[in-house]
Amino acid sequence: PFYSQKNDENGNCSGEGIEFPTTNLYELESRVLTDHWSIPYKREESLGKCLIASTYLARLGKFSFYAYKDYLFKGFHSIMLLTSSAVHKWGTEIHEGIYNMLMLLVDLVAERVKQDPIPVGLLSVLTMAFNPDNEYHFKNRMKVCQRNWAEVFGEGNMHAVSPISTFQKEPHGWLVDLVNRFAELGGFSAIQSKLNSEDIELGAISALVQPFGVCAEYLNSSVVQPMLDPIIHKMIKYVQNVEEKDLKDKRLVSIPELLSGIKLLCMRFQPDLVTAVDDLRLDILLRMLKSPHFSAKMNSLKEV
Predict the structure, then answer these.
(1) Can you give the residue range of the structural domain that contains 273?
(2) Residue 201 phi/psi, 5° resolution?
(3) What is the model's pLDDT at position 145?
(4) Which of 146, 163, 166, 272 is the most exposed place for a label (fewest CB within 10 A)?
(5) What pLDDT shows up at residue 17?
(6) Same domain, yes or no, for 233 and 129?
(7) In a domain, 143, yes or no
(8) Is 2 contained in some domain?
């Protein structure tokens, strides 16, 4: 399902007059939005060019994810094949190519998350990329890191680490690379800043938390926990104080998803709060189910 072709052009962008490579986007569309999809996995090919250009435009504050989100969503869903075992049949070159594409994705999200509005769609793609349970990361779970992150952050200050003992769990070095690259580009700092905003919506908070929740077991608690502990306690208190009249607010549909992400973080950083978060999630679902507001009932049933 992957293809590679000779191309004298590279994917690098420079100069103030850069435009998004729509020709490459249309070519990517023809490869992705079809039953028999094929994804380019080299930097100088369509997906690489689109990601590099997007990152450059994001740096300039000119990137609009919504203009071509379907292609990037579908592209990364396909490129990691979350529900297929086909990934296990691909060779080393393809897997390394996917690693490079995921790095480009991380570069893009790290730039875009520094700006407003919060890129909820892109963060959901990042969550997919950070999930150690998807087929791609499972296939490459024994890989070690390709960079020495202690040289970047200082010994013991990496944002993500492989477990000390392989008897505990697999290294997942490539996943650790992705998370640390995100931190290196200021992604963690940007998310911390967004989470501390006073007027941030609940759905945006959930989107910001999810990428860390899925990979929580590989986060370095000494570095990341001080950043996330305040939001964990803040969100638990917020949900505890939700009143019946608030349940009609459509924005509260994000609460169950948010609590799921918070639970994953608690399992890593605050294990004594896991049961409380579970109980709180069940309580809010029950309250939504009993609510006279139709939307609250339907959202509760959907979550159940």
Answers:
(1) 221-303
(2) -80, 155
(3) 96
(4) 272
(5) 53
(6) no
(7) yes
(8) no
Residue 27: predicted pLDDT = 78
Res 72: pLDDT: 58
Residue-level pLDDT at 175: 97
Please check whether residues 252 and 153 belong to one and the same domain. Answer: no
Which of 199, 219, 239 represents a domain boundary (last residue)? 219
Asked which of 219, 249, 274 is the last residue of a domain, the reply is: 219
Q: Look at the pTM and tell me if it is higher than 0.90.
A: no
Query: What are the per-10-residue average pLDDT scores of the chain (304 residues)?
Result: 39 54 75 69 83 84 59 54 68 90 93 90 90 91 95 96 75 97 97 90 93 96 94 91 78 85 95 95 87 72 70
> Is position 97 within any domain?
yes
In this structure, is residue 69 part of a structural domain? yes
Q: Is 243 found in the same domain as 210?
A: no
Q: Are residues 163 and 252 in the same domain?
A: no
51 shares a domain with 194:
yes
> Are both 190 and 295 inside the same structural domain?
no
| 1, two tokens | 């399902």
Which residue type occupies 11?
G
| Structure confidence at residue 1 (pLDDT) | 40
Number of domains comprising the chain: 2
**pLDDT value, residue 3:** 35
